[in-house]
Amino acid sequence: MHKRRLPSDSTAPDESSSGAPPGATVAHVDDARSLARQPIVRYVGFRSTARGREYTMRVSDVQSSRDFVLLISHQAFAAHEARFQDAPDVCSGKLRRELAADPDLLPGDGIAVTPQDLLDYRNSHLSSTEKRARTRPLVPEPPAD
Asked: Does the global pTM surpass 0.70?
């Protein structure tokens, strides 16, 4: 929930009627409603199939609950593009992005986790040492004498 600081000299009726002392931090009702509309994504489990691992995620909101299946190929695990312990988090992130793009998304044949999804996940979860190594500018070697 976002909190906003009320100005101490505020005379707006909705702010002064909040009962909060001047300069107090208050939560706005609109912020709470916005958070309440956010769906909750939960990991249910996985099953191994011929195509890969299918991860079931349950999306719940105020009105309903829907189960989505996301697939990570066996090849992605074998090539070390995905780690078993990260897979539920990868799938959760992918599903959240899909829902952000289409809030009325319905479960269907399944959602494939792409190599780009896996790369984005790895890049967003680099250790601080790895981040520094990737952002360090290349320094040219001095000329050999």
From this structure: no
